[in-house]
Amino acid sequence: MTSPDTKPVFQIDYGPVIEPEIEDLRALIEERFELPDQIKSRWLALKVLEGETGVLEHLLGGEDARIVLERAHSIRSRLDAQIPEGLEIALADGRYERVGRIVEQSLTRPEEPARSRTEQADRIVTHPWLGIPIFMMVMYLVFSLVVNVSEPYLGWIEAVVSGPISNWAGALLSSIGASAWLHGLILEGAIAGVGGVLVFVPGLVVLFAFIGLLEDSGYLARVAFVMNRFLAFLGLSGKSFVPLILGFGCAVPGIYATRTLESRRDRLLTALLVPIMSCSARLPVYVVFGMAFFGRNADQVIWGLYSLGIAMAVLLGYFYSRTLLRSSESMAFLMELPSYRLPRPSNLWIHVSTRTGDFLRNAGTLILAASLVVWLLLNVPSSASRLEQSAFGKVSGFVAPVLEPAGFGTWEASGSLITGMVAKELVIATMTQIYLDEPGESEAESEIDPLQDLLDIGRGFIGATIHAGERFLDAITPGVQLFGGEGDAEEEGTALSFVLHDSFTPLSALAFIIFVSLYTPCMATLGAIRAEFGGRWALLSAVSQTGMAWLAATLIFQLGRLLGFS
Amino acid sequence: MLAQILVEFDRERRPLSSRELASRLGKDLAAVEGMLETLVRSGRLVELGLDGLCEQCPAHRLCIVLPFEGRRFYLVTREGRELPDEHGTCWED
Question: Does domain A19-106 have CATH number 1.10.287?
Fold first, then answer.
């Protein structure tokens, strides 16, 4: 039994409101029970007040326990009414206060702790002036690796799709007596359309892997920190960088990620800027045109397009923040920079497989369906002798004059851009159907030898992997050509890359990819903006981006012509 | 200190991260996280992400907000949860 006069050395004072009630309950417990030495009456009173009634019932039980519990209940009710945060929180708070005081009295913190390697690296990486140039260089390296490493696989997948897969499908269709119409729909519509997009899967895997590396290593968190100052120019905080960087993969999660921003104005402004970041679905367009017209400089062009997206986002953001979406308040941006670490393979795998899976799902559903629709529209009416006279050709030809000042006013280009409004992957899928539509060729009844085909596929993969390894080493040793010569690039590219030379000049090709990089977001993105902010903001996004894309492409094309480029 | 944390939530009426609270209150992150866990156990706060709320978000598989901002919490009032609407939004206007 503890006497109230012998105050223990360590006792928390819960304040003038609670203490008398604890004392009251403690006295009642002592009056009713003969407690064993190891159980203190004050501790038991506190437990009961905190609602742990089982302790009392378990230890003591009986009528006396009921009386104590009733008193405790009335005390709890009284104190809960008096204390805004409630008795339980107030008791925990008292303990935290005591712990805080003990820590304050006993802990001596070094005035200037020794800098860790992470802190030393951060002095450079997050430097006010060096931070952004370093980020741009890192992104250039990433895109250079994406283009160089994925290029050998493009040819391999294209050969597999247009060779064995088309042959097997053709043979299967012939064996079931399919009509010529069905042959065309499957081979020229489904396989050519979806296959034209699937060839870029290796490039996207490389891109997602590098973005995953940057994220898992802790570098992207630094970029958000560096961008804070940059985004403050638009009245946004570095927090907006997170949705914006998601936009490089796909704009839809980027739009939803704006939910984490505090004000509606910040969410809206960020959501309007996210689709201007070049998403991964636009990468195939850049790669095809880059390889077709810019050879070894394709990586620089692609990097330039991504940088252009950032620059245009800043311009548009500046415009919105001074007109429709003004703000006077600036939000603080708080984030803890994690230590640098070696990326974990399991994290990378999740990152790459999730994003690649989404792309493949899209290819197997939306792109497949759209490819079939485009093929049908390209083949009606059946009396049309040329694709230009088809329903698709006529509708596309109606839009083409609008694009004439930008240098690509053909029905083929405008038709591809129209389907690209549904999903950006469809630009290349449609182009593959239009430019590579050579009826009869794919249906040629070549000899089918599945074993030989599989051996060829395996050999092709090994060859592409060796070549990709060489290109990787070349890419990470700038200025040193370890493998291959300058002319090597001329032989690279997809079949589409080669036929585009008949329809585009380097200047019109540049204007075209600039247009693609900036014009209206895809339907899924517009749907996300509409769901989050309403239809008029989705409409504004589509109209403003298309207008901006047309202006930028026209400006580049006309300026280029004035300067004598073709 | 716990009362101060609840006051912060009540004033902001939005999810707050442990880092943000630690900075506002001038306390160690670990200490604040301990206090937040006490408040979660007492039913006054709910943690974003572990409560299945993130799973309702269309972007949850690709979201990198949690790794960037750390653990985030919502206030639960005496009247009940002050949680996102039925669409699972992770903010409150």
Answer: yes
